[in-house]
């Protein structure tokens, strides 16, 4: 574990360096302390390295590096966030999340949430790269002062008077040991720039995005979704919607089962515990049939993301290590709810990643069956199926509502069998493949009225366009006057609940967990029944190191390698040797590796294809070390 000495001892009153075990229901308000001298001091104290040739890049999910090199970046992100908030003439809030998601404890990272709660746009990314790499403190401070003056003047013209809205930056962080200190640097710089900081403390990434979206609710939150700011609002919204969806059941006999959740030894554990407490407080007499059992928390003894969590389970296709020694000892809450029934079985499990924006499900044997994985592709199919059915019922009962397009966005990692299933179900035109990374899939999903997107690694959500809300309004008006149609009314209730339960800003493991559990409960499906929607083609992934991964270029959706030119012909040749074979390579956006994906009709063929493709990468892209073999998979 990497420990950074705290060179800002006066930071203690701002952010406790002790990891809290619970979440702040509402953020701590930290007033602006505008001072260009303090800003210059911070920039000087945490200078961008003069020696390093490296350019700090704002990658797929923000700046993500070894934590030791991040302090200068954090100071500059404080400036960036303030400028992003200043830039919006209407005084919108923005967010900063300090996390390195699925990476190991030695990494950390930071990303910005734009006013709509989504990922920062490309213009912001360019500014981020400039600020993070500017070595000259005077130039940096002058740039900030000039931009601040420009935006402030524009704002005054816009608002017609001198009193303008405060500039507000929300910050949140994960449970990494260095996150408090790194967050402290963002906070100090933002306050020195004149921003009011709302410190949410330890939160999951999607909670921070939720907080930003709901802070800017007037402009960005669809009318159907109640305004629920902060972390307590997030919890209430999710739990109310989960209960509302389950309440649409027509089957009174509750299904009793447990759902064991591997939280990657990260912040998802704290978030899930907090959600379950809200469920307890608000659900007296509520026949919730699933006992959700969070495990692998930050205090479980397991290292963050190591041999556990969604990345591990999905990439290795094996169960996680269960670190909690007392996992199978029964326990109840003070309200009497069983949180650890003695009979927790492992036939219904889920795994989150280190910042809880991804989830995969799996069954670890039980009843004589083997391990099987239900990844983001399976979740996408379940959601499309559910939404498609309910929409079909509503459209039949209310033919006057306009046609709504239901589409799905996947990435090159989507299993070929899932793509075939979705194309057959939704039509080829409604299945799109986008480049890896939330910003790409999220943007592509907006082309549909109902856009489901999921990366195979479990990051995904559903976005709903204006026409969706209009259609539901019209259907509600029609059904309130028509002869009672209980099936259509139930479909309407379900479709109205979805945008509230689903995080509209970003993929969210906790929201997806509740959504999938509610759908499975309504259908009375086991994981085996869900898994039977289609049969995955066997697939294999690998990653290898090369001297410089930036030499690898791909086409837009990463299905073909364009450079080095010698790679793709060799991959094509390999693919032809295997029935149903498919394979691609791409440089990782979060780690210093090249990723390889292969699938084929049999497990053996997928493994062989992956191994051969890894060799091609090693040969053609200046691989580091020995040529890889399938046994040496990392
Ligand atoms: C980040 C992305 C995720 C993507 C993954 C790919 C966000 C919020 N997260 O975690 O969508 O699948 O990177 O990682 O954009 P890779 O480039 O290392 O394969
Ligand atoms: Mg993540």
From TrEMBL:
GO terms for biological process: carbohydrate metabolic process; UDP-N-acetylglucosamine biosynthetic process. Residues 579-614 form the Alpha-D-phosphohexomutase C-terminal domain. The keyword Isomerase applies. It holds the Pfam family PGM_PMM_I. Residues 89-123, 137-216 form the Alpha-D-phosphohexomutase alpha/beta/alpha domain. Its cofactor is Mg(2+). One of its GO terms (molecular function) is phosphoacetylglucosamine mutase activity. Residues 375-525 form the Phosphoacetylglucosamine mutase AMG1 domain. Belongs to the phosphohexose mutase family. This is Phosphoacetylglucosamine mutase. It comes from Phaeodactylum tricornutum (strain CCAP 1055/1).
């Amino acid at each position: 574990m990497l420990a950074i000495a705290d060179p800002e001892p006066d930071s203690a009153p701002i952010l406790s360096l002790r990891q809290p075990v619970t979440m702040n229901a509402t953020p701590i308000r930290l007033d602006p302390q505008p001072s260009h001298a303090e800003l210059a001091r911070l920039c000087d104290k945490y200078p961008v390295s003069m020696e390093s040739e490296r350019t700090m890049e704002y990658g797929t999910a923000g700046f993500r590096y070894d934590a030791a090199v991040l302090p200068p970046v954090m100071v500059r992100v404080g400036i960036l966030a303030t400028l992003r908030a200043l830039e919006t003439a209407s005084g919108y809030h923005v967010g900063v999340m300090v996390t390195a998601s699925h990476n190991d404890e030695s990494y950390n990272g930071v990303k910005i949430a734009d006013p709509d709660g989504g990922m920062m746009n490309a213009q912001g990314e360019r500014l981020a790269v400039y600020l993070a790499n500017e070595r000259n403190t005077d130039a940096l401070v002058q740039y900030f002062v000039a931009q601040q003056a420009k935006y402030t003047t524009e704002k005054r013209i816009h608002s017609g008077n001198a009193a303008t809205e405060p500039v507000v930056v929300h910050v949140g962080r994960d449970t990494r040991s260095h996150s408090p200190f790194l967050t402290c640097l963002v906070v100090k710089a933002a306050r020195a720039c004149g921003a009011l900081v709302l410190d949410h403390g330890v939160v999951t990434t999607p909670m921070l995005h939720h907080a930003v979206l709901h802070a800017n609710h007037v402009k960005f939150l669809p009318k159907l979704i109640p305004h629920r700011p902060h972390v307590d609002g997030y919890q209430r919204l999710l739990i109310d919607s989960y209960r509302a969806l389950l309440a649409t059941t027509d089957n009174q006999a509750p299904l009793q089962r447990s759902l064991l959740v591997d939280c990657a030894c990260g912040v998802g554990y704290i978030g899930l515990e907090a959600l379950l407490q809200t469920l307890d407080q608000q659900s007296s007499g509520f026949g919730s049939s699933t006992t959700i059992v969070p495990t692998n928390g930050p205090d479980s003894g397991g290292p963050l993301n190591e041999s556990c969590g969604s990345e591990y389970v999905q990439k290795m296709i094996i169960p996680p290590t269960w670190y909690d020694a007392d996992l199978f000892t029964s326990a109840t809450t003070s309200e009497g709810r069983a949180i650890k029934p003695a009979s927790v079985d492992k036939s219904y499990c889920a795994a989150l990643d280190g910042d809880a924006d991804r989830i995969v499900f799996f069954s670890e044997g039980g009843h004589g069956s083997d391990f099987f994985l239900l990844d983001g592709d399976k979740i996408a199919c379940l959601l499309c199926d559910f939404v498609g059915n309910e929409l079909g019922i509503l459209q039949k009962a209310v033919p006057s509502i306009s046609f709504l397009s239901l589409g799905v966005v996947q990435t090159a990692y989507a299993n070929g069998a899932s793509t075939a299933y979705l194309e057959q179900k939704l039509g080829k035109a409604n299945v799109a493949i986008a480049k890896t990374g939330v910003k790409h899939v999220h943007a592509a999903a907006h082309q549909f009225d109902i856009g489901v997107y999921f990366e195979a690694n479990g990051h995904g959500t559903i976005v709903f366009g204006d026409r969706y809300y209009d259609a539901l309004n019209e259907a509600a008006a029609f059904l309130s006057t028509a002869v009672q149609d209980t099936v259509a009314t139930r479909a309407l209730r379900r479709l109205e609940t979805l945008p509230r339960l689903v995080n509209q800003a970003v993929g969210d493991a906790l929201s997806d967990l509740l959504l999938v559990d509610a759908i499975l409960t309504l259908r009375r499906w086991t994981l085996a029944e869900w898994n039977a929607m289609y049969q995955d083609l066997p697939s294999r992934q690998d990653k290898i190191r090369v001297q410089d991964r930036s030499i690898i270029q791909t086409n837009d959706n990463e299905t073909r390698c364009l450079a080095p030119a010698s790679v793709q012909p060799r991959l094509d040749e390999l693919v032809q040797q295997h029935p149903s074979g498919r394979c691609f390579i791409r440089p990782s956006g979060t780690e210093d590796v090249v990723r390889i994906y292969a699938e084929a009709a049999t497990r053996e063929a997928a493994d062989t294809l992956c191994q051969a493709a890894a060799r091609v990468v090693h040969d053609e892209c200046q691989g580091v070390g020995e040529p890889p073999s399938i046994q040496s998979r990392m």
